[in-house]
Amino acid sequence: MLSKIENGQTSSAVATLSKISDALDIQLSWVLDDNPETDIMILPQSKRQISLGNENMGYTYELLANRSKFSSIEPTIVHVTPKDTNLRHDPYTHSQDEFIYILEGSIYLHYDGQKHYMETGDTAYFKGTNTHLFIPVDNQGAKVLTIFVDNGD
C-alpha cells in the first residue's frame, strides 16, 4: 500500500495519511503538501511573512526560510519592540536550541535567571528549554537574527 501511495498509483484517505505521518513523527501538513521538496528554497523579501507575533507582547518576527519541514533549523528575524511599548515580562521556553546574532540595536538577554547586555554584532547560543527573554534597552528596539535548532531531544 505504501509503495502504491508513493508512486501515485492509489490515493489514500486522510486518516491513513495521518497514521503514516504519526508513525514517521512528521506533521500531516508535510504529507499533504503538494509542493515538491527541493534542495534550494528562495524566499524573496516581498514574500516573507512579517509581523507574526504580537508587538504589544514585545516582539514580532519574520520567517527567513520556510524550510522547517525539510530541516532541523529555522532562521527568523525577531523584531524586539521599543522599550515603552514592550509589555512582555514573562520568559519563554521551547524545545529547540537557539542561536542569536544582534543585527541592529541592543537588548538584555534574560537567560536562566541572569541578565546579559548584548549589542549589534554580539552572538549567543543557548538551550531553549531554559527560560529566556529579549528585553529592549531603549526605544530604538532591536533586530535579532534567530536560528532555532532542533537538537533531536
TrEMBL record:
What CDD domains would the database entry show?
cupin_XRE_C, HTH_XRE
**HTH cro/C1-type domain mapped to chain residues:** 1-31
Concerning Gene3D superfamilies, the annotation shows: Jelly Rolls, lambda repressor-like DNA-binding domains
* Domain of life according to the entry: Bacteria
Q: Which UniProt keywords apply?
A: DNA-binding
* Classification via PANTHER family: HTH-TYPE TRANSCRIPTIONAL REGULATOR, METHYLPHOSPHONATE SYNTHASE
Name the record gives this protein: Mannose-6-phosphate isomerase-like protein (Cupin superfamily)
> What organism is this sequence from?
Virgibacillus alimentarius
